[in-house]
Design goal:
12% strand, binds zinc ion, TIM Barrel, alpha/beta, 45% helix, globular, eight-stranded parallel beta sheet, two-stranded antiparallel ribbon
């Protein structure tokens, strides 16, 4: 039995133990096995298909979208641009996007539903919390935050009956007091509902290992969490997380750059990211990775210099992975089957 098998057996043992000793909230679980919630209702996992693991239709800050749609070019214009881009993505083979926009990133669930309906793109919406807490949220305990996350998973989001299919949490390059509460709350809500977690974890600061410690101190099974933005991080950090049982979110790929990229940037280049993904595939870990753009269509319409720069770097937007990353991965020798594993099989298993 090699180390991976041993780990698998250990994890299987843990989940048996967890099944024997139910969490007090578990009795409330309404989530049907074999299905995942989208903004247009639950679907069978088999219908998830080719999935981009970390995207944002419209990310900003809490309340801005609703109060100031002109900032995004106006609601009608924004819907048109977003629907066009998602239709294009669908034409190029994308079946589902996981939209990890939380309350503090200005999530608008009715907007997501409208754009999903008009584009035909399946969208999984998120509960959880990113790194921009209001004073009201900052004052909450981990238990209160867990209650809020469970509410959005079991009852619905923003006055609708649209339910969250994933829990998104994270921190900046250190774990502050609020980040710790949010991470603990995510672990508790995941244990109570079975819904998986994805994180915002600046990998160059190796912060995913801190997130892992917090999750495990709450008794979370590592396979219930995907440590995000791990494409921009050192190879030994990636290996440490994957061997510990976590999924790796290679979900920030457009933010790399060509070898002669911005001199001040410490980010890994595209080529470095792709070679590290190949090394992980070669080591047998294709079945632990998911790929995404972390693209925000909303941000790309904001008339600020920063966003213009981002758009100049990635004119393909949410199509970067399908147009640039996957051909590049094939060109360095990653087989089609491994790509299918990362884009289709892993998301299905992650949400199961
Ligand atoms: Zn993101």
């Amino acid at each position: 039995m090699d180390r991976r098998e041993a780990l698998g057996h250990m994890l299987a043992g843990l989940s048996v133990a967890a099944a024997l000793k139910p969490h007090p909230l578990e009795a409330q679980t309404t989530r049907a096995a074999g299905r995942v919630e989208t903004v247009r209702g639950p679907i069978d996992l088999a219908r998830l298909g080719f999935t981009l693991s970390h995207e944002h239709v419209a990310a900003s800050s809490a309340g801005i979208w609703q109060a100031w749609p002109e900032f995004f070019g106006g609601r009608a214009q924004f819907v048109k641009v977003a629907v066009d881009q998602l239709k294009q993505a669908k034409d190029e083979g994308v079946d589902t996007i996981v939209d990890v926009t939380t309350i503090d990133l200005g999530r608008d669930i009715r907007l997501l539903e409208e754009i999903s309906r008009k584009s035909g793109m399946q969208i999984v919406a998120a509960t959880g919390h990113w790194i921009d807490p209001s004073r009201s949220m900052q004052a909450r305990t981990a238990e209160e935050l867990a209650d809020f996350f469970v509410r959005e998973i079991q009852r619905g989001i923003e006055g609708t009956d649209i339910k969250a299919g994933i829990i998104k949490v994270g921190t900046g390059n250190m774990v502050d007091a609020f980040g710790e509460k949010a991470l603990r709350a995510a672990a508790r809500a995941s244990k109570a509902t079975g819904v998986p977690i994805t994180t915002h974890s600046p990998g160059l600061d190796r912060i995913g290992l801190k997130h892992a410690e917090l999750f495990e101190s709450e008794g979370l099974t590592p396979a219930k969490a995907c440590i995000g933005h791990t494409d921009n991080s050192p190879a030994d950090y990636q290996l440490a997380l994957v061997k510990r049982g976590y999924y790796l979110g290679m979900d920030n790929v457009p933010r790399g750059g060509p070898p002669a990229g911005t001199p001040q940037s410490t980010a890994l280049t595209w080529d470095q990211r792709y070679m590290q993904i190949k090394a992980l595939v070669d080591a047998g870990f294709a079945d632990r990775m998911m790929i995404g753009n972390d693209h925000s269509i909303g941000m790309s319409l904001q008339p600020t210099a920063n966003e213009k720069g981002r758009l100049a770097q990635n004119p393909d937007g949410m199509l970067f992975v399908t147009r640039k990353t996957l051909p590049a991965l094939k060109a360095i020798g990653i087989p089609d089957q491994a790509i299918r594993t990362m884009m289709v099989d892993v998301p299905r298993r992650f949400f199961a």
